[in-house]
Amino acid sequence: MVDAETGIVSSTTGSNYYVRILSTLNRELLKPSSSVALHRHSNALVEILPPEADSSISLLSDAERPDVKYSDIGGADVQKQEIREAVELPLTHFDLYRTGKTMLAKAVAHHTTAAFIRVVGSEFVQKYLGEGPRMVRDVFRLAKENAPAIIFIDEVDSIATARFDAHTGADREVQRILMELLNQMDGFDQSVNVKVIMATNRADTLDPALLRPGRLDRKIECPHPDRRQKRLVFQVCVGKMSLSDEVDLEDYVSRPDKISAADIRSICQEAGLQAVRKNRYVVLPKDFEVAYKINVRKPDNDFEFYK
After folding, report:
1. In the CATH hierarchy, which fold is given to the domain comprising 6-48?
2. Where in or outside the cell is it found (predicted)?
3. Beta bridge partners of 115
């Protein structure tokens, strides 16, 4: 506010406006960073908006809360235990102090009463400069206001790759987003039950500053399932399918190909579709064979990050 009658408003486009303030508005509610509405013609300040977070950042309601249970995830016993120790237990047992892929995060949200805030890393990269860091602040403010809460940032590598000498405005903006993320994680009050989970397929590209203890205290690898875990995933995926007695899942479990749990799910879905296309209610071995050939991918290069 310049005085009781006028003020300066900054828009999301970067423009500043010297505006008249409607006489009926409560001046005590006008504070720096307040969200306001302007008249479309006169640009007069006509309304003070509630201090809500960005519309693209929201909590999942009870109806939207993931229904994935730990029992729905085949295998991954060690990963389940680690993520429960790091995230779930501190949120359900508040006396425990400082104990941090998508399905595991959803299972954590289902098994706790914590508010669940999910955002994809690329959503922080906005058209206008400064919008990304503001969204990061909004996410953490929303989490603190609704604690206990879980912030799940998927594909974090889109904003948290190792820093370099940026030559474009877009690169500099991404680095500012990363700096704001680091600052917010450093500013956590340990008495506030807010936990951060991040998921990435490119852990080798992440900035070392993000990985240091105190920010991300625990790294949980979700590798390709071993033979036992393949069997468990297949059992979960075919649980509601009508299989022929001739189908031998152990044949696919014992194959040496490196396949992920998502690959196994796709194999089972494709096998079911093969049966539907042939107007059959029962899935035959040849359906699984076709589905396996369609979905099996070449093994990815391994790298020593979690060892």
Report:
1. OB fold (Dihydrolipoamide Acetyltransferase, E2P) (2.40.50)
2. Cytoplasm; Nucleus
3. 149
Which listed CATH number (1.10.8.60, 3.90.220.20, 2.60.120.1440, 3.40.50.2300) goes with 227-295?
1.10.8.60
Concatenated DSSP letters of 161-195: BPP----SHHHHHHHHHHHHHHHHHHT--TTS-EE
Enter the tokens of residue 89.
């237990």
Burial (CB < 10 A; 0-12, 13-18, 19+), residue 171, is: middle
Dihedral (Cα; 97, 101, 106, 112), 10-degree rounding: -10
Over residues 81-132, the pLDDT tens digits come to 767 656 665 544 433 333 226 677 777 777 777 788 888 888 777 766 677 8
Rounded distance between C-alpha atoms, residue 300 and residue 285, angstroms:
27
Q: Tokens 């071993």, residue? A: 226
Rounded to two decimals, the pTM is: 0.56
Q: Report pLDDT for 284.
A: 93
The alpha carbon of 15 is separated from its chain's Cα centroid by a whole number of angstroms, namely 32
- Is the Cβ–Cβ distance between 16 and 8 less than 8 Å? yes
Question: What is the DSSP track for 192-255?
Answer: S-EEEEE--S-GGGB-HHHHSTTTS----------HHHHHHHHHHHTTTS-B-TT--HHHHHTS
Determine what percent of the chain falls in helix, strand and coil, rounding each to the nearest 5. Answer: 40, 15, 45
Q: Who has greater pLDDT, 32 or 37? A: 37
